[in-house]
Amino acid sequence: MGSKPSTGTTSIAAEALPARSVEPSPSAVADTNMALVIGRLVAEPESRTLPSGSIAVSFSLTVRSRGEKTTSVPAVWYDPPKRVLKWVAGERVVAHGSVVRRFFRGAGGLGSATEVVVHQAELERHSAKAVRLVTRVNAKITERSLTS
Q1: Which strand (E) or helix (H) includes residue 97?
Q2: Which residues, including other chains, have CB under 8 Å from residue 131's CB and lie 6 or more apart?
Q3: Mean per-residue pLDDT over the chain, rounded
Q4: Which of 79, 108, 119, 148 has the fewest CB neighbours in a 10 Å radius?
């Protein structure tokens, strides 16, 4: 899996998922807020410095699921590694985080945005790192479903 060269036909998610999985009922899973998004960068990430001094890097991922509409998923990563600013539009990214709705005041009044707050992300071309990330997320979901 990790040393096998990528042919571009097997997705990272498919490589990282176990061959057999037990599907717990929704009532058996502990409350959780985890997002795993695998998609292409719409544009280069944008960086801004917050009043607190933290850096916020925003980007959107286009997700094309077979048989479904293409969606764009907005994401923000607070104080990310500097390598994120070198990502270019069109690259596939594997991102793990939490879905958050935030509220703000703008020129038009009160507004809100729903986005994924990224905890960790990797370029899919870094196959081994991306597979490890998906595997860790999978393990967290499994752990939470077994311990609830």
Answers
A1: strand 92-106
A2: 1, 2, 12, 15, 16
A3: 82
A4: 108
Contacts of 129 (CB under 8 A, 6+ apart): 122
Tokens 């490890």: give the residue. 132
In a domain, 136, yes or no: yes
Q: What's this model's pTM, rounded to 2 decimal places? A: 0.73
- pLDDT tens track for 64-82: 988 889 999 999 999 999 9
Q: What pLDDT digit, counting tens, does each position of 18-63 carry?
A: 444 555 555 555 678 889 999 999 999 999 999 999 999 999 999 9
Token pair of 72 as six digits: 């764009």
Q: Using the 8-state DSSP alphabet, how is residue 76 labeled?
A: E
Instruction: Please check whether residue 1 lies inside any domain of the structure.
Output: no
Return the number of other C-beta atoms located less than 10 Å from residue 133's C-beta: 22
The secondary structure of 15-33 as a DSSP string is HHS-SS-----GGGSPP--
Instruction: Write the CATH number for 111.
Output: 2.40.50.140
Is residue 17 domain-resident? no
